[in-house]
Amino acid sequence: MGWVDASTARNAAVASFVAPLVARLLSSSARKKWNAYFHQFDDAGMKRHATTLRWYHKAQTITSIPALVVFIQAAYVPFLVWAENRDDVQLAVLDDPVLNKISPVDLSLPASILIYGALYLFLITETGNPRNLLATMKTSLFGLSLRILFLYATPLKCPEDAPELADIFTEAQTGAHGQSSALTNDLMFSGHTFSLSVMFLHCTSKCLKPAYFIAAVAVACCVIAQHVHYTVDVLVAPFVAFACFRLSIELFHAHDAPGHFK
User: Fold this and answer.
1) Going by C-beta distance under 8 Å and a sequence separation of 6 or more, which residues neighbour residue 73?
2) In contact, 125 and 65? CB cutoff 8 Å
3) Fewer Cβ atoms within 10 Å of its own Cβ: the N or the C terminal residue of the chain?
């Protein structure tokens, strides 16, 4: 019964996080910017293909958000639960020279504040930039797909002395799939570091970009200090984020009119 109450509280926290973002997305100013994005090819010289391109971008918009949500709920979260309890192989414990030199410290709270504070700020500030927001979704989709492959191919076990990394949003998702405890074996690569690296790469504000970089470095240090990730998990994440970032831009948004990715 206590777990049910905790699950309800986590779901309420998720809802309170999402509701203002939806309201922002549906605001009149945001709708105007999205409408301008759809009509970016209506200028002279592009009118011949304007209608086709407009519907192409509308189709991307309509499918991107549901695709990301469905993928997370139907594939990514169930896989994380499976990977946490997998018994097809023996999970390996790495001898990490960095972790060997430091004692584990529970830094769940500052790590959560940094990553979810940064995520909230990113979504609020980038709502008016349709091209960038859609590109970020695709980067995330590529990254989550690669993380499934990495986790399957590198079955690692978290160090025994690591305190659990409390994350109400992840626990709300995994709890719906029968996982009653925090995930500990989703190691290669660091999802926290990847997410902040993606925000840094996609951030269009010169003022905020350094803040995302600092947050990414700080969270990377937090998960290493807490021993919930090996050093290599954290080092790989930014490179994966950059590869997914370039793939998203080149495959889906290289043809967009100038001025919609700044």
Assistant:
1) 173
2) no
3) N
Residue 156: strand pairing partners: 92
Q: Bridge-partner residues for 92, per DSSP?
A: 156
pLDDT, averaged across the chain: 78
Domain boundary assignment for the chain? 2-253
Let me know: does 223 contact 102? Beta carbons within 8 Å. Answer: no
What is the reported pTM? Answer: 0.77
> Alpha-carbon distance 128 to 106, whole Å?
37
Mean pLDDT for 67-78 is 82
Give the residue from 98, 106, 137 showing the smallest Cα distance to 230.
Answer: 98
48 vs 114, more confident: 114
User: What pLDDT does 54 receive?
Assistant: 55
Retrieve residue 2's tokens: 């206590």
Confidence tier at 129 by pLDDT (50, 70, 90) = confident
Phi first, then psi: what are they for 205, rounded to 5°?
-95, 125
The pLDDT assigned to 183 comes to: 80
Structure tokens at 195: 């997410």
159 contacts 92 by C-beta, under 8 angstroms: no
Is a pLDDT exceeding 80 seen at residue 29? no
Q: Which residues contact 228 (CB under 8 A, 6 or more apart)?
A: 158, 162, 163, 164, 165, 184
Nearest alpha carbon to residue 1 among 135, 137, 180, 209: 180
**Can you tell me whether residue 92 is helix, strand or coil?**
strand
Which residue bears the tokens 């699950």?
A: 7
d(CA 122, CA 120): 5
